[in-house]
Amino acid sequence: MAQSIPLFSRLMRAMFDEVSEQAVEEGLLTTTECDTIRRRGTRKQHNHIRHLKDLCAFVEYKQRKEKPEHDTERAGNLATVGKLQGIPGRGG
Q1: What range defines the domain where residue 60 resides?
Q2: I need a labelling partner for 4 at 20 to 30 A (CA). Which of 14, 45, 57, 88 fits?
């Protein structure tokens, strides 16, 4: 059981990297915004689920507020990666 926690943390970190990379490629976020989301609250250590939730929420916010003409189906799939992966609190 003790080894499953680091594995889960690595998985969440990898998912964060994947979502942030896609968001930057699509122009929804900047690399600075992604770094800020990752660094926020790092004193709590290993809170990768919260970072991923915050990233998904910020992507959804940017979709609604800044780019209403953006392809919502494609961007919606990006923002709901947490739901698809069964992350608690994201519909999973």
Answers
A1: 4-84
A2: 57
Instruction: Judge whether residue 70 has pLDDT over 70.
Output: no
pLDDT at 65 over 60: yes
Contacts of 22 (CB under 8 A, 6+ apart): 78
Q: Is residue 92 part of a domain?
A: no
Note whether residue 30 is domain-resident.
yes
90 in any annotated domain: no
Q: What is the largest CA-CA distance in the chain?
A: 46
Q: Is 29 helix (H, G, I), strand (E, B) or coil?
A: coil
* Global pTM value: 0.58
Number of domains comprising the chain? 1
